[in-house]
Amino acid sequence: MFRIYYHNEIPYKVLKVLKAHHVSPKGYVDMDLLKEWRDCIGADHVLKKDGEFWLCHTVQEPEWEEIVEEINLAL
């Protein structure tokens, strides 16, 4: 089950949470390694929260089409 997290009013589906030390083998964040993780699981966005990196997929607003039907009520 995925969790939905809102950041700046944008919904994200959290695909994976990585502890910072998983992408910091030499004491600094290895951005190439973080990008590899992101691309490997199909995420399109990375959020940093509480010492973790959240690999997320942006939830797109659905496109709505207004359907207007006339209802003929013959009494």
- The overall average pLDDT, rounded, is 88
Secondary structure tally, helices: 1
Bulk shape: rod-shaped
* N- and C-termini, Cα separation: 51 Å
Largest sheet: 4 strands, antiparallel
Portion in strands: 35-45%
**Number of DSSP strands?**
4
Element-level helix/strand string:
EEHEE
Task: Give Rg in angstroms.
Answer: 20 Å
Helix content: 10-25%
Whole-number tally of structural domains:
1
Uncertain regions spanning at least 5 consecutive residues = none
Structural class determined from secondary elements: alpha+beta
Strand order of the largest sheet: 1-2-4-3
Features:
four-stranded antiparallel β-sheet, 15% helix, 4 strands, alpha+beta, 1 helix, 75 residues, rod-shaped
Describe this structure in words.
With 75 residues, the chain is an alpha+beta fold. The chain has one domain (3-58). The chain contains one helix and four strands, in the order E-E-H-E-E. The chain has one helix spanning 31-41; strands at residues 3-7, 10-19, 45-49, 52-58. The longest helix is centred in the middle third of the chain and has 11 residues, at 31-41. The mean pLDDT is 88.
Quick recap of the structure?
The chain contains 1 helix and 4 strands, in the order ββαββ.
Topology:
Layout: E1 3-7, E2 10-19, H1 31-41, E3 45-49, E4 52-58
Antiparallel strand pairs: 1-2, 2-4, 3-4
